[in-house]
Fold VWFA domain-containing protein.
Amino acid sequence: MLYDWVQNIEFKYIWVLPALGMLPVLAWLRFRMARSLKAAFPVTTTKAFQERGGKAAWVQFPFWLQLLAIGCLLVALARPQIRDVRNRKTGEGIDIVLCMDVSGSMLSQDFSPNRLSVAKDMAIEFVRNRPIDQIGLVIFSGESFTQYPITTDHEGLVTQILSLRSGMLEDGTLIGEGLATSVQRLATSKSKSKVVILLTDGKEEAPETRLIDPNTALEIAKAKGVRVYSIGMAGMDRVLVQEGGVVTRSEPLLDEALLKRIATQTGGQYFRARNKEGLQLIYEQIDRLEKSKVEVTSRTRYQEQFPYFILAALILLALSLLLKYTILRTFP
């Protein structure tokens, strides 16, 4: 604690501090002139004076207390302060929804340790780099769900991202419903810029219960003025299909044509992430493309520390006088 205090201390009148160099000089002069300041009288023997008791050993203690008091006063005159700088960020942000695939295939280990873990890490980094924006989270697999509404409570959002796991929803890949839910979260937004970042590692797998297909979701996004950045996340291009234990064919892992169409028709861009570093670069590029207007206001406050040194000096002086005229009193 004392170390931190010393590290943060500043002196407004630092030119006073060299005066502390006078303290050793005062101590030297005190003992140099000590003999001439003592009273003398003739005695027949000095034997009694050569036996020094415990009290005599402390006779100079008040002088040292006074010297310390002078040092504290000099430090107080130098005006010690602790500077406290506080930054406040304000501005015009962007409303963003992170639309993330949490299907079973997101546990594939072509990204280490798996796709979902890497996607979560990069999403958290993106959120923390955008302090002004309102950001929400929608997840999808065989259904879609709003995990966190758009908010500036980024710590709460990060907690929700960390909690994501495969199996939270019925398995599958309903890109259209994930996109439609994300657009719905932005429907009441008054922001001039509304963005969805859609991340998936597969292509649309439509069960009979599907409500909204990708093309319908695309039209809704266009009608609501929502810009979509789509990310295809996979280290491989094709997947082998087995029938009866025999590989019969290979199919594209991603529907890149669909992801490109969603992005370009809404004014966004499509990106392909083949590894963790690639996904990180994609989020950085989106961060540059979608700039918020941020104003940083700095406020500096100074906490004065000189009263503590003045108080210490007064206590030291009072203690030295008390000792000098009571316990350590000398004659004459």
In short: The CA atoms of residues 271 and 282 lie 7 Å apart. The domain at 90-293 is CATH 3.40.50.410 (Rossmann fold).
